[in-house]
Amino acid sequence: MCIGYGFNDEHIQPIILEENQLNKKPIVIVTKSITEKMKKLFIDNDSDNCLLIAEGDSSKGSKIVYFSTKVVEFDESFWHLDKFYKLWFE
Are residues 3 and 14 in contact, defined by beta-carbon separation less than 8 angstroms? Predict the structure, then answer.
């Protein structure tokens, strides 16, 4: 699980990517916005074991991207940690 991580750290990022892409360990990324780096690494790369939760395209609610091409929009802001916690842990 990565919360608010932008995938720009040259020391941590290779470890995360190796586990996710080579060892097929799933990853959940919770962030305000999907950066170009995230898009390149997980969406354009056809990652099938990544769940991205970010602010919705209309700057409200949230969008969840999975299987690199599936996008679901919600009115709730699940990218906020309190909402994310309620969604997954309550």
Answer: no
